[in-house]
Automatic annotation (TrEMBL):
SUPFAM superfamilies: TrpR-like (SSF48295). Residues 186-225 form a coiled coil. Residues 11-61, 131-183 form the Insertion element IS150 protein InsJ-like helix-turn-helix domain. PANTHER family: INSERTION ELEMENT IS150 PROTEIN INSJ. Keywords: Coiled coil. It holds the Pfam family HTH_28. Belongs to the IS150/IS1296 orfA family. Gene3D superfamilies: Winged helix-like DNA-binding domain superfamily/Winged helix DNA-binding domain. This is Helix-turn-helix domain-containing protein. InterPro entries: InsJ-like_HTH, IS150/IS1296_orfA-like, Trp_repressor/repl_initiator, WH-like_DNA-bd_sf. One of its GO terms (molecular function) is sequence-specific DNA binding. It comes from Paenibacillus lutrae. The keyword Coiled coil applies. Signal peptide: none annotated.
Length: 226
């Protein structure tokens, strides 16, 4: 489209009100004002999230903390929430923005933070079978925050990533080192098995608490918009 006019906040709101009046389709209104249907939908979404302030041009430069980016991505990858639910909950400008974060995360790139502690080790370290189980369970409970888990347990990002995948595909036995130096699950003492089960319960409770907190936040957002 040539000579696209850059509308200000009040002009965008007037266009959205015209859309909400229902006297024309999105395609017709988009054509009338020489914008794309996608742009029109984005304006309406921003207006619903931020009000008139969301329609100002400066909204495209909004800053997001690394912690928010990471949490939004992990919530999406959990498979429990749609992109639309997440951009509403975290007040993200667009699905495109969220998708960029997802792509970055899946490429094993981190969201840098000035408050971030020591970086995760780039080289791994030797671990016991029970350590690997503990680390995998912890990471899953933390919505697969591989970087944070690697830093906390002083192992590499790749080690955590591989252990989680192995655990999900083959359970505890898949985390044995294959060299016969660790006890198999049937060889664990009663006390060791009991300790392992307690850790599983603790991590599952932690994961459920995080999920409940998110659902409360989502419910409150929907209540405010109703």
């Amino acid at each position: 489209m040539a000579n696209i006019h850059e509308y200000n906040g009040n002009e965008k709101m007037a266009i959205i009100e015209e859309l909400q009046a229902g006297e024309a389709t999105r395609k017709e209104i988009a054509h009338k004002y020489n914008i794309s249907v996608g742009t029109l939908v984005k304006w309406r979404h921003r207006y619903e999230l931020y009000g008139i302030d969301g329609l100002e041009i400066r909204v495209r430069n909004r800053k997001y903390s690394p912690e928010l980016k990471l949490q939004a991505v992990q919530d999406y990858l959990s498979g429990k929430y749609s992109q639309y639910e997440l951009i509403d909950t975290y007040k993200i400008a667009s699905r495109t923005q969220l998708q960029k974060w997802i792509n970055k995360y899946n490429s094993h790139n981190s969201f840098k933070s000035v408050n971030e502690g020591a970086r995760a080790m780039t080289k791994g370290r030797s671990t016991t079978w029970q350590e690997r189980i503990d680390i995998a369970l912890h990471c899953i409970a933390q919505e697969r925050d591989y970087g944070k888990t690697a830093t906390q347990f002083k192992v590499s990002y790749n080690q955590v990533y591989q252990w989680v995948k192995k655990y999900e595909n083959g359970g505890e036995d898949a985390l044995q080192d294959g060299r016969g130096r660790n006890k198999a699950s049937v060889e664990l003492t009663e006390a060791e098995r009991h300790k392992l089960e307690l850790k599983k319960l603790a991590y599952e409770n932690e994961r459920l608490r995080a999920e409940i907190a998110f659902l409360k936040k989502l419910k409150e957002l929907k209540r405010r918009r109703s």
